[in-house]
Amino acid sequence: MPVLIKLRQIAFRLSRSDILFWTLPLLMVLLVIGTIAQKELGIYAAQKAYFDSFITFIGPVPFPGAATLLIVLFVNMLMKFLLFSEWQMNKAGVILTHFGVLVLLAGGFTTALTTREAYMVIEEGQTTNRIEDYYQRVLQINKDGKTVLSIPHQDLKQGLKIENVDIPFKLMIDTYCFNCNIERRNSDLEGWKNAGQFMQLVPARTLPKNEENLTGIAFTISGTSEDGRYVTFDKFPKPPVFNIGAHEYKIEITRQPRELPFSLKLEKFSLATHPGSDTAKAYRSEVRVIDGQEEWKYAIEMNEPMRYKGYTLYQSSFDLSGNKAFTVLNVVENSGRLFPYIASAIMAAGLVLHMLIAGFGKRRTS
Length: 366
What we know:
Blueprint: H1 2-14, H2 17-41, H3 43-51, E1 55-58, E2 61-64, H4 66-84, H5 92-114, E3 116-123, E4 127-143, E5 146-152, E6 161-162, E7 170-177, E8 180-184, E9 199-203, E10 216-222, E11 228-233, E12 241-244, E13 247-273, E14 280-291, E15 294-301, E16 306-308, E17 311-319, E18 326-333, H6 339-365
Antiparallel strand pairs: 1-2, 3-4, 3-18, 4-5, 4-13, 6-7, 7-10, 8-9, 10-11, 12-13, 13-14, 14-15, 16-17, 17-18
Helix pairs in contact: 2-3, 2-4, 4-5, 5-6
Subcellular location: Membrane
Main location: membrane
Protein name: ResB-like domain-containing protein
């Protein structure tokens, strides 16, 4: 039984209090550094670098990320719970409370690794299940309105050649910048088409607020009747379009699209303003939720989000500049959303049970 003895030794070592003693200060140091870094890197980049990572760097020094520290903390508390709990009926309340703490910690870890934010823009009367990521950009090639090739911005770089069986042309990226400044083109005028004849993309310093960065590329295309050099960038209103045969191809930089497991139809958007001004006081989106054969109405208002299938949809913004109203919903996907509620219920039940057992024990003694 040497293996079992070794495993038992490892389990008892993992339950030692000195692990907690060293892990908590490291977690506090990481919290302080990550919070300070938000001013320079922005909330999203700092979150990814320090809190969602398993290992990070403080200068040239490697340092465990929050994900690693939370795993160590959870394993330590789990081993302590399993090996040193007094498994007796009169300690049932304490055991249940400690179990609730473990569930809460597991929920925090799940939330840190799985939470994703996106937004949904719906025109009044429109039905859609499409959402776009707030932070992740992609180079997207569409054929007749359908995506045939999508490349994450992390894979884009100067000199990258793009060939694919789904597209009848070749691309080469001449310039890539995660954040670009748009400047007037005064030189290197040869071969440019579309807006590239008048503007150029110049790499700029990454902005702290990730969503404010303007990602773009300059590229050369061959294999079409309109070969040449083009530019496109995030939210460019007129991205390059090529007609090849009976098909239309569009090349654009956009936020990474995803699909919800249900659809929303915006039936009515309402806006209330403060008297004597155009400042919004409250706004409300009356939507129809469509999930397979099931449909129902729901009103999404400020501070009154809709929660369904692990998604929370908040009323974020709106656009009334055109003939029809548009609503903008913030969409948060959080697989660990229910953990705090479950953990709180378990801990509350444990504390109540502990008080009942203690009170019953005192009455028996008296």
